[in-house]
Amino acid sequence: MGEKKSRFQLSEKQLGYLFVLPALVLITVITLWPVAQSFYNSLFDYRLNDPTRNQTTLNYQIDLERYADHYFFYGRDMEAAVEASVGTEFEQAITDIQASIQNYHEELTTGELQEQYEIVDEMVFNFEAVNDTDLKYAQLEDDVAEGYVSIFDEAQVVFSAFQESTEDEDVSEAISVASSTVDRLDRAIVRPNFIGLTNYGKYLTDARMWSAMGNTVFFTVVSVFFELVIGLAVALVLHRAFIGRGAVRAAVLIPWAIPTAVSAMMWSYLYDGQTGIVAHYFAQLGIISDPSVMLSTGSGAMASIILADVWKTMPYMALLLLAGLQTISDSLYEAAEVDGAGKIQQFFYITLPMLKSAILVALLFRTLDAFRVFDLIFVLTGGGPANRTESISVYAYKVLFGQQNFGEGSVLSVIVFVSVAIISIIFIKLIGSELFEGRTARK
Amino acid sequence: MRKKAGVPFYIFLSIFIFVTMFPFLWVFLTSIKPPIEIFSGFNWFTSNPTMDNYQSAVETRPLFRYIGNSLVVATLTTVLAISVASLAAYALTRLPIKFKGTILGIVLAAAMFPQVAIISPIFNLVQGLGLRNSYMGLVIPYITISLPLAIWILATFFQKIPFELEESAKLDGASPFQTFRKIIFPLAAPGVFTTAILVFIAAWNEYLFALVINPDDSWRTVPVGLSFYQSQFTIPWGDITAATVLVTIPIVIIVLIFQRRIVAGLTSGSVKE
């Protein structure tokens, strides 16, 4: 028994490390590693919808599944092309190409890849999908791959010259079929797509990137400013005893707790030019010229987004500041009163300084949140009209998943990340170590 | 500062609550109007209230399926995040390990990472694991949102538990794990529960990952599902408002029941969502 106990007894310290380990592993795997991966991806010409560039690779690779699949038809189609060329000036060129491709194919499939190719070929023949990436892709020697690719290019040149010279429809047909099978073989070879900082050069001089950045900064500054001012005012008003605190707290929390996408849908109804009541009343009050301007003009749409965001997150700001207010001792105000300080003086000399760290913490988290704004804009305006409300996250989403361009989209992801890091560093410099206070100390 | 409130105060309060609740109020009033009235004017109240919009909202799209998906994903995320985070928060506040500041710094930094910066590798990861259009496919990335949040809030709550209780348990011969399970965890239960609510709400509200990873209609979560109610030719505001009311109700109930705890959690962690 005693032995058993000592075997399982870890020291407090070891236990401590054991306890933090799962959290650290998870954070590393799903936050730190992906950020590093985004940096890495941004250095490549990496497009999901282009088979020759659908992975990041520093070397030539071959997609054996694709290759085996198309090589199966290649023999027949090339044979037809050779037959069609008999007796023409292209006969020699085309038989040469056929022989070269034959050579390269043999070199490829009898060397060290032989076994792997046979397995894949067999699977393709039985219409099985090759899902194992290690099996599906193989590395190619640079010179072999380059040679093979240059034969494909040469073949395309010859084919198109042939196509132009002939008027016989059957010949033309055979050539175009052969040309497209060769093209498919070509696409099975994945090129090294490392392009270094080229993508960054492109996006740092991209007008749309800078306008998205401008929109994001404008949105962040304006909405966080209004949230802070209104939130502080609301917190000061609520900071007293009154009947119905619970009701107020619930009313304040509900907009915060509703999914942003859902509130964006609600606001898109309220702003709608035909049926939207907010647009209707704004127009009647003379704030806007016509109900339709809320979502159909750039400045109207930006104002709409800011209003919706302030409505949604001001309560959160007010709650944080209210909590801060409650930590200020009443005796400070009493002393100030005795010394003859007015309400305004009390606010500037007691409330604001005492609230400083609460305000900074709230500002930090709100600024970061506002800067990475996505769902509100995506659902409410989609970035429109004419990209006037497009935030940098929305732009990144469009490049990543709209254009399926992971290389260039990652550049935008990295730009968002770097901006957020800069904002955090500035705020943490201002807040200092107060953020960590009381959390790490063992009393 | 704490004076009794006067009449002007209550007037201000009523206006404030009205402005805050107005969008919900209007959406609810619209949801019971017959469609013809929605498009024809701005009457506040309809004289022919109807449930047609609700019927159409659940028939045109699998709204209950969305709610079910969100429930499963948010619950799984909450359970996973809380179990991992409470161990970590306990070690960080109570056990004599080194690099506490560094670890908390990493956790805080992870909370600040913009989701769009990690979305493409996460997409590849989930795709590679064959988990697109599945619950686990969302739960895994949701850990990124919820774990840092949970660790920070839990650390604050654990910190408040008097150290003496633990010392005396140790003197009585309890192992650190027993102390954690029998002393700390029950005492911290209210804090754990608070954290769980916040993690649940954060997972319930998430949009970007859900949009990218589970695009299949039967796997969509509530926020994504609702944002796809627009049809090609007209916008079915009746359906949308009815669906909004339906998906808002669970959150409103949660907020009404747990408002005190939510406020405690928000202010102790100082972290949004």
UniProtKB/TrEMBL annotation, chain A:
Spans traversing the lipid bilayer: 15-36, 217-238, 250-271, 291-311, 347-365, 411-432
Annotated localization: Cell membrane
SUPFAM superfamilies with a match to the protein in the record: MetI-like
Main location: membrane
Keywords, ordered alphabetically: Cell membrane, Membrane, Transmembrane, Transmembrane helix, Transport
Transmembrane helix among keywords: yes
GO cellular component: plasma membrane
Keyword Transmembrane helix attributed: yes
Superkingdom per UniProt: Bacteria
Recorded topology in the membrane: Multi-pass membrane protein
ABC transmembrane type-1 domain ranges (all copies): 213-427
GO BP: transmembrane transport
Family indicated by similarity: Belongs to the binding-protein-dependent transport system permease family.
Protein name: Sugar ABC transporter permease
Automatic annotation (TrEMBL), chain B:
Membrane topology: Multi-pass membrane protein
PROSITE patterns, per database record: ABC_TM1
Subcellular location: Cell membrane
Main location per the UniProt record: membrane
Record-stated family: Belongs to the binding-protein-dependent transport system permease family.
Domain ABC transmembrane type-1, chain residue ranges per copy: 67-258
Superkingdom field: Bacteria
InterPro entries found in the cross-reference section: BP-dep_ABC_trans_perm (IPR050901), MetI-like (IPR000515), MetI-like_sf (IPR035906)
The name this protein goes by in its record: Carbohydrate ABC transporter permease
Xref: CDD domains: TM_PBP2
One Gene Ontology biological process: transmembrane transport
Organism encoding this protein: Paenalkalicoccus suaedae
Keyword Hydrolase in annotation: no
Pfam families: BPD_transp_1
Any GO CC annotation of this UniProt entry: plasma membrane
TM annotation in the entry: 7-29, 71-91, 103-123, 135-158, 183-204, 240-258
Swiss-Prot/TrEMBL keywords: Cell membrane, Membrane, Transmembrane, Transmembrane helix, Transport
